[in-house]
Design goal:
Layout (H helix, E strand, L loop, with lengths): L12 H26 L5 H18 L8 E3 L4 H9 L7 H26 L2 H6 L2 H13 L2 H8 L5 E4 L2 E6 L2 E6 L3 E4 L2 H21 L2 H5 L1 H19 L26 H11 L5 H34 L4 H24 L3 E3 L1 H10 L4 H14 L3 H8 L3 H21 L9 H15 L4 E3 L2 E3 L1 H16 L1 H10 L3 H28 L1
Antiparallel strand pairs: 1-6, 2-5, 3-4, 7-8
């Protein structure tokens, strides 16, 4: 794929800020969703700050060669819930979040050190294009349900009072039931989402050079304006179903981030000291296995971005560096936001669609995330972007991730049953949602599909490896045979020469 801006290119300042804002919009929804799902007072703005700091750490370790943004990882949702729910005390939850993130990050650091000395050839042997391609496709396809689900709902809700029949003194009467919460009409939400998607497509396909590079900004703003118009009419009595945007969030703005390490210090002083060893052990069991799962997704993400920018990041700057950047960046990000970070497919999709692989854009995006964490009105505005609008954008983002994975196998011979079985198993396991749960540990569909794909690949290539071993005989065994074969013709040639001399 031809990039308009390469990894080392520097767009002009005005464009650079717009590109960075586009990247921020692409990763925003997922980054702030994790702390909102966990609850317990976690701060979305602190998670945004942590993502920005973690990304800068990642860029430093990768020598500014990998244009990827790090955001809150959904893979650790169960682990984070465990840190809050079990152990010494509920009050030690934030301390548990940081301890768990450090443990997960250390897994990356240890693997990075091993790879530094062992190399990466083993990765190409067990994860060639026929394995990694469909796995990358699954990363996009596994998120399809989220995009479509968001497309059908807004972010605001309204109360509905229903009339029901009740029996009072043996007589049926009509009474008003307790108000129930409902979201806006799914048809209105769908319209806003489709407008967002349509404008994004038109800008990307028919727009001039600059518009082609910021299709998400134009698309999101178009969808937001339409949603705001519907929301304005929703305040007319009887038109509540038109309420798409929750503007009430501006009444409760968070003016500064509640950093996790500050809460953790308070937790240490307020918490009950119990079986601290058991608590840390439980956190280790919850976090460390998930880190190995996310490691596999780390490789898939970097293979994907490598194919997009046509540079193998696993060789330059190297897998050991990307792992160190991801691991240490995750630890640092969790100290501020409480959430372990990971490379974001949304960021990769944004690079692919916009044609902008400039690392400076990612750096400015990280800086913008840090600054925005302290600008409550702007952060609140971003939080009011309705789900349907982000769903429209994510259909394109996740679709591009899936397609980029399929591109990796375009040169793979799918007429060969060996390759066909590998690709088929990965796609079906991933799309089918194969998920394994071992207590507090959840192996996601992406990880399950990749592991199963590797096993099938090794299975179908056992015979091929035996043939290669048979062909590649040791040199000392081949040499005597070659000498024996070459000696006889040489003796015959000598006899012929002697006979010629006699004549």
């Amino acid at each position: 794929m031809q990039m308009i801006y390469g990894v080392k290119d520097r767009p002009k300042v005005g464009r650079l800020i717009l590109f960075a804002l586009q990247q921020l919009l692409a990763i925003l929804a997922a980054t702030i969703a994790v702390p909102m799902i966990i609850g317990n007072g976690m701060s979305p703005s602190a998670a945004l700050f942590g993502a920005g700091v973690g990304t800068i750490v990642y860029l430093l370790f990768t020598k500014f060669k990998s244009p990827v943004f790090l955001g809150s990882s959904f893979a650790f949702l169960g682990s984070m819930a465990t840190a809050f729910a079990g152990g010494v005390s509920m009050a030690l939850g934030y301390l548990g979040l940081i301890i768990g993130a450090v443990m997960a990050g250390l897994v990356y650091v240890i693997i990075a050190v091993i790879i530094k000395f062992a190399g990466t050839k083993w990765i190409d042997k067990i994860m060639p294009a026929v394995v990694i391609g469909p796995t990358v496709a699954i990363i996009g396809l596994s998120l399809a349900g989220n995009a479509v689900g968001d497309l059908m709902k807004g972010s605001a809700f309204y109360d509905v009072t229903e009339q029901v029949a009740v029996i009072k003194d043996g007589v049926a009467e009509i009474a008003e039931a307790t108000s129930s919460v409902m979201y806006c009409s799914p048809f209105i939400a769908l319209l806003c989402g489709l407008v967002t998607l349509g404008v994004t497509i038109v800008c990307s396909v028919y727009g001039k050079k600059f518009l082609k590079m910021i299709p998400f900004i134009i698309g999101i703003l178009s969808g937001y304006v339409l949603a705001a118009i519907f929301t304005a009419f929703s305040y007319i009595e009887g038109a509540e179903v038109l309420r798409v945007i929750d503007f009430s969030k501006f009444n409760n703005m968070q003016w500064y981030p509640d950093f996790a390490f500050i809460s953790a210090i308070g937790d240490i002083n307020a918490g009950e000291v119990g079986s601290i060893g058991a608590y840390i052990g439980k956190i280790a069991v919850a976090y460390i296995p998930v880190a190995f799962v996310v490691f596999e997704e780390h490789i898939a993400d970097h293979k994907n971005i490598s194919s997009i920018i046509e540079t193998d990041l696993l060789k330059d700057p190297g897998l050991s560096r990307t792992l160190l950047g991801d691991g240490v960046g995750s630890m640092v990000g969790a100290v501020f936001g409480g959430c372990p970070n990971t490379t974001y497919g949304e960021s990769v999709g944004c690079v692919a669609i916009s044609g902008n692989a400039s690392v400076i854009t990612i750096l400015v995006t990280a800086g913008l995330a840090i600054v925005c964490a302290f600008i409550a009105p702007f952060t609140t505005f971003l939080a009011t972007i309705p789900s349907c609008v982000m769903g429209g954008v994510c259909i394109a983002l996740y679709g591009f991730i899936a397609v980029s994975g399929l591109k990796m196998i375009q040169h793979v011979d799918l007429n060969d049953n060996k390759n066909l079985f590998v690709v088929s198993v990965i796609l079906i396991a991933g799309v089918g949602g194969m998920v394994l749960n071992f207590g507090e540990v959840t192996i996601t569909e992406v990880a399950c599909a990749l592991i199963l794909g590797i096993l099938v690949y090794l299975l179908v290539n056992i015979k091929s490896k035996k043939k290669e071993e048979a062909v590649a005989q040791p040199a000392e065994e081949v040499a005597p045979v070659a000498e024996a074969v070459n000696e006889e013709p040489a003796k015959e040639e000598v006899k012929e020469v002697k006979e010629d001399e006699k004549l």
